[in-house]
């Protein structure tokens, strides 16, 4: 991790953060549903620094962290939609639609969804009222 850099982390997966020395971390958590992006799109976002919105989001987060203590409690949620929109825009400008990471993310998601569908709908044999034909 580099000082002042932006990172995307899936909050549903195991992860940890450590750093040496002193300092602070500025963290903003945005639910994927607020981004309006699929899991595949978020997972395939690459090269965040290449986005024209990278510095804008970094500055926005830094400003939020600096001014948040001075805001009234009722005003602290007001910037949330703006932050989500900036994060979404940044990710959309870095999503690659034709690379191996994108395909692997999509395939992994589709396999998981198919397995869930099979377990949910076909794990128990159904009893048929008129008898089974073989």
Round the Cα radius of gyration to an integer and report it: 21 Å
Helix-residue proportion: 40-55%
Please state the average pLDDT score.
Answer: 76
How far apart lie the N and C ends?
61 Å
Q: Strand-residue fraction?
A: under 5%
Strand element count: 0
Low-confidence stretches: none
Largest beta-sheet characterization: none
Count helical runs: 5
What structural class results from the helix and strand content? mainly alpha
Keywords summarizing the entry:
134 residues; mainly alpha; globular
Question: What's this entry about, in short?
Answer:
This protein is mostly helical. It is built from 5 helices and no strands.
Give a description of the structure.
- With 134 residues, the chain is mostly helical.
- It has helices spanning 32-35, 39-44, 54-67, 80-92, 100-122.
- It is globular.
- The mean pLDDT is 76.
List the helices and strands and how they pair.
Blueprint: H1 32-35, H2 39-44, H3 54-67, H4 80-92, H5 100-122
